Amino acid sequence: MKQNKTQYGYLIILLVLLCCIALWSVISGQIPIGLNDIKHIISPSSQVVYSESGIKLSMIEEVLLTMRMPRVIMAMVVGAALAISGAVMQSTVQNPLADPFLLGISSGASLGATIAIVLGFEVGESIFSELSIPVMAFLGASVAILFIFMLSLKNNSVSTLYLILAGTVINAFCAALSNALVYIAEDSEKVRAVAFWTMGSLSQVSWTQVGIVGVGLLIVLVYFLFHAKELDAMMMGNESAVTLGINPNVQRVVMIVLVTILTSLVVSFCGVIGFVGLTIPHIVRSLVGSKHHWTLLYSAVVGAVFLVGADWLSRVLIPQSEVAIGILTALIGCPLFAVLLLTNKKRI
Hints:
ABC transporter involved in vitamin B12 uptake, BtuC; 14 helices; about 0% strand; cell membrane; ABC_transptr_permease_BtuC; Iron chelate uptake ABC transporter family permease subunit
């Protein structure tokens, strides 16, 4: 009981840290926003027309409500979603290097979105045009995971080894098809759009997209928390899971499908953002242990902190420009993972 209180206490401290980093990310950038500006926006006054920096308050309000806030909240949601997806994948396939990107889920989603962009499905003002990239990304991820399951079947059960091998093959195949589509595309604007999208971006997110991914994250996280004991058992191996009355094959399929849905939502709106799902769960396990009740909660919060910080860096690192967030997560995540390998060789 005392240990639980301590763990919850540290979790609350992390949540406070997340709120502080999110607030800093909201008010800082090319257009600075003061706390008094936020106060005037919340409580409008006809006497106050300009912000502390001399910019019209109406412009500050538009930047705050339509750009900064949805972007920062999406960074929280995406960071949490990718981190818990990585934690669950590593446990279900019993491989510390597993994450949605390794198994080809994200590359399948990326291929679907690339098809939508190159073929011009998103051009126009119809509902189909607006939803073409998310829908195609989801279809791409679904087809990829279907082939992965088909290739990984062994004696009417899903082999974890074959799952990794099949995922590697599908990942390479989808990446090759995406590159081929970009290579033969004649429109340079579409090529640039695909290139920037495949490196990840939170610059064009809307409140609707935040709501969709947020609801998906909430549903999947609640399911995983209610099945944390099954994840604990599966991490120890199929024999241990069966001994405890758990069908590892059924649970593995269900959990990978949920991860596929969640990853597809993230990739469809924000592109490919790597190394969050691979690195964050290992950092969390080295701090709080391998019990999934804590691993999932801490992974969600630490993943959110990590991506909000990375997104802030992507906006301010180069003046009057923006670095693709996928580049930053890789540049930060690779050294972090290397340090983890060096310091926890016996545990990873």
